[in-house]
Amino acid sequence: MKIRIISIGTIALSICVHADVSVLNVAKDTMLRSATTVDEADLGGATTAYFSKTGARVIMEFDLSGLGQTVTNAVLKIRQASNISGAYNVQVFPMVYTSNNYSWIQGVGTITSGSDANAPADASGAASYRYRFNSTTDLAWEDGSGTVVSNASAPALWGAEIGQETGTGWASGTYSAIVLDAATIEASRTSSGAITIGLWDANSVGTGNFQISAMEAATAAYRPVLEVTTVAGPSPYEQWIGGYNLTDTNVLVDSDSDGVNNLVEYALGGNPTNGTGDQSVLPVSAIVVDGGFNGVEYVYRRRLDAAARNLDYYLELADDLTSGSWTNGGYTVPGTAVVDSEFETVTNRISSDGVDQRFIRLQIQITP
Fold it and tell me: Which of 231, 251, 282 is the last residue of a domain?
């Protein structure tokens, strides 16, 4: 029987980046009006909150813990709930994370523009609690090192601006979509699993108090949301190719022009930059006569974690290359042997009994 070994075949099935869009509702929101040394917290059952250039600011928290992939885009959507004809400016800042800072709770009263008569008291009803830092829990705001800051307007409490919208004519019922810095959202997702943001006019562009609908708004569509786009992080293949300082992630590219594409190099343990063809990792074959078996033994390398990497290896056989078709069958796998911490060898046997010739090829397939 004539045995012909055909070059290794590769199949890449629909390798693409899949993006998911999640709409996150506000986990909690409140409003702060800062004096020189005090802060007042509000909202409770209020359906609107306001910000201004004079210290009034809305703060809200979003739970990011349910996002399992890398954040690549984030848009804060808020509904304008008042009418002001002049210029407006909305800036968004992330609160520095400490356990104290993120343990704030919503107020139980309602502060309205120009009045603190309904500011929340503490559990005992002490009116002086209206002038505590952190809602009704009396936990001091802190900077990143845990040092208490004077009030919620202290610059050390807030990170750099992560989004802004400026315009003219704040109109009730109009929606604003403020693009936020995705890297900041991603960093919060992987560290604290949440982000508290503050909204105010830090550049003193606007005049007056600009109201937005709060999470307590009766109509769900009025409530603020954070629309987040996520994608899977680098695949094992992308991490491997990046380790060689290559940026083209097309698995069928032959980066070093040695006649072996990058998928084969990856699957068999080659180097996509050395240009030598990596002969030592390519399959080998030999005629074998052993205990009644007559035929070919074909051995190839396979990654030990091939399934986790979405790699599949298999042989295909054909009787001729003109009218015949390739089939995944007609061979046995008598055993495997571990090579090192990453690879094993797979031994295949193809019988020569009853056939005049046989063509053999190894297929390597990667799926998303």
Answer: 231
Both 97 and 8 in a single domain? no
The dihedral formed by the CA atoms of 170, 135, 34 and 118, expressed in degrees to the nearest 10 = 70
Q: Which domain holds residue 322?
A: 2-16+237-366
| Euclidean distance between CA atoms 164 and 57, whole angstroms | 14
258's tokens:
């040695």
Instruction: Supply the CATH number for residue 256's domain.
Output: 2.60.40.10
One domain, residues 89 and 122: yes
Lookup: tokens for 368: 């998303």
| Residue of 3, 4, 7, 8 lying closest to 313 (CA atoms) | 8
Question: What pTM did the predictor assign?
Answer: 0.62
- Are 154 and 41 members of one domain? yes
214 close to 97: Cβ distance less than 8 angstroms: no
If asked whether residues 303 and 201 sit together in one domain, one would say no
Please write the tens of the pLDDT for every residue from 246-289.
999 889 999 999 889 999 999 999 999 998 767 889 999 998 98
> Assign residue 110 a region: left if phi > 0, alpha if psi is -120 to 50, beta otherwise?
beta
CA angle 111, 59, 24 (to 5 degrees): 125
